[in-house]
């Protein structure tokens, strides 16, 4: 039905009438979206079934990627691209007076994630399928994804997200594959007929995990992998207790992503979600494995289980439980299999983000799992004792259970054969500092896998004009082999090419300007530099540094009429965690500054500030193609990798950034003339942290620009903000500016001046832009996934790619 336009139109019209019972003219865009979505899913299904059959019958090793987040965004456009049916669909719809873009905008983002970690999982799914790797995603089908953000009077207001409200065309419910997950109750030991000590879990409260499968279509191949999302539902068992409470508590398990865990009840819910994901996924993984009738000791040769951060770390004791209690293997053998099967990625060194669960909550909720964790801990501590006799402090620091808490990262380090960081610098910091104790014992387990992004969504789908220009110049092999983008470097001195590139960027800026006007009623200057910082709002990401620089520019322009820099449009997008008070104040500050500078006629030809509400994958796809400056300004050592930095680079923006995360590797690839690096190095930051010696008040006292801007936070400079920004002021001066904003301010301002100067030479700028695009191929997640597949999982492609003409 997608072979040619006429066939497609006929099928589309007939399905439309049959499924919605309206004449074509009466159907809504929503109806049309659903019908097209269903047609595409049907089209996918043959290859989906075939792929599954191959996976069932093959001897090839399978990898399962367990993640509490999958931030897919819209699915239809990516499927259309990967299936290669874009032209037929677009032209067919056009004949019917329908724009494909408009239709796609009816699809809600699938936003089952917060930020980097969840988006990485989504990029990985796309790469796994596109590389014909037998990779399965396992996650949770949250009823509400990440909240929807509205900005009301400059303040973030959260609304529940409702992606399932109008039905989901991409998922298939598989109730026959449901799995029971037991919580609470107690563990009894008994002796079996053969006289072995066995355990059984009694009086548990079971809930049902029902899988919903989403097909993951590879690019130009027959492979269609599966993302399996588990939904929590009441189990079909007689229940004597309060049935309403049970139903409510059960459904809560897949209701929200990251429930607030300030209270015990929230912590229990989080832990329930984690075990729910792990128990259901491992059950289904082991079912598939058992069908192959291999000895259980062969598991690591057929199955690789990857845990995305520590949220699914209970996979370790859960696999132990299966091997000990169901397969009845001795501990040592079970442990060996578990460690060989599971691998772990660390995504942050921020101590507040390292998960710990109180024993008093863990033990009653998961009694058998807790017993196993205790045993793992005891054996590990014993080994430590043998290795470091008398070193109590070290053992206490490294224990999995200490001070009545279960440390999930320690469990991950001990119970897996591979721990990887997500950028070179991050991995070095893990090895040399944060996890140095563990590195000493398990040096061979540590490795780096620098993150990547799928160039299919982040270039080919979101930036068709640039994709076209690249293809006209170097052909289209880069689409399946992104490092070939390097050939673009031959064009960096080609005047005609540079002009074309500038035209593409300009057109993308026009589109973003329209979006900005539509959402914020702000008219932006198309000749201004589009300077963008989009990412989660967090103190370490230092949106505040960006804002203080804007305030300084404004102050200086007000003071000195002869100071008029190249016009800039500062664009922000960021969600703050609902309970993160400080981050919300930064959002308010950005909007307050925007209000002030955008309405000042003496400066607003030069300076505009735009906060785009509800930053999400689909909005990001409109932003990156239009960006010229990419703000990657985290305190060095704090951003594990960043992936937005790669999306900007691939779309030809130039980075202003610190030597942090993957910025370091971008720097290495584009060279110092094509990136703007500023600020302290991670070494300097860590030295300050270890030895002290930083006094933010000195910078405040000695730098007039800082003094003025910081005072303006609290002195009534912004009308009606009395006391509102005290917490920001205090963080800088009373709490000694933990993230070194004031320390890096001067360096940032000077480097921003370099950015402005560089922009004056438009040809030179465009040349740098080419160098960035040309070197972005390394950051395709195809490279990242190939490294995971070769070095950690040892999985190989299964289906041979069918290149469609
Ligand atoms: C989590 C939390 C939760 C508690 C409050 C503070 C806080 C701060 C950070 C986090 C990070 C969670 C893990 C995460 O998303 N890490 C991101 O992973 C990306 C993919 O590897 C990487 O590019 C980002 O640098 C990293 O921050």
* Number of helical regions: 32
Alpha-beta classification: alpha/beta
How far apart are the first and last residues' alpha carbons, in Å? 17 Å
Identify the overall geometry: globular
Sketch the major β-sheet.
Answer: 10 strands, mixed
Mean pLDDT: 96
Portion in strands: 15-25%
CATH class of the largest domain: Alpha Beta
CATH superfamily of the largest domain: Glycogen Phosphorylase B
Q: What small molecules are bound in this structure? A: ligand 26V
Q: What is the strand tally?
A: 25
Helix content: 40-55%
CATH-defined fold name of the largest domain: Rossmann fold
Kindly provide the radius of gyration, computed on alpha-carbon positions and rounded to a whole number of angstroms: 27 Å
Please characterize this protein's 3D structure:
There is one protein chain. 48% of the residues lie in helices and 15% in strands. The protein is an alpha/beta fold and 805 residues long. The protein has three domains: 1-58 and 75-107, no CATH class; 59-73 and 109-448, 3-Layer(aba) Sandwich (Rossmann fold), CATH 3.40.50; 455-681 and 740-787, 3-Layer(aba) Sandwich (Rossmann fold). Helix 3 (76-83) packs across helix 18 (455-461), helix 19 (464-474) runs antiparallel to helix 20 and helix 20 crosses helix 31. It is globular, with a radius of gyration of 27 Å. The protein binds ligand 26V. The site of ligand 26V has 19 residues, from helix 6. Ligand 26V binds at residues 115-117, 120, 309, 347-348, 350, 352-353, 422, 451, 538, 639-643, 661. It is an enzyme of class 2 (transferase). Allosteric enzyme that catalyzes the rate-limiting step in glycogen catabolism, the phosphorolytic cleavage of glycogen to produce glucose-1-phosphate, and plays a central role in maintaining cellular and organismal glucose homeostasis.
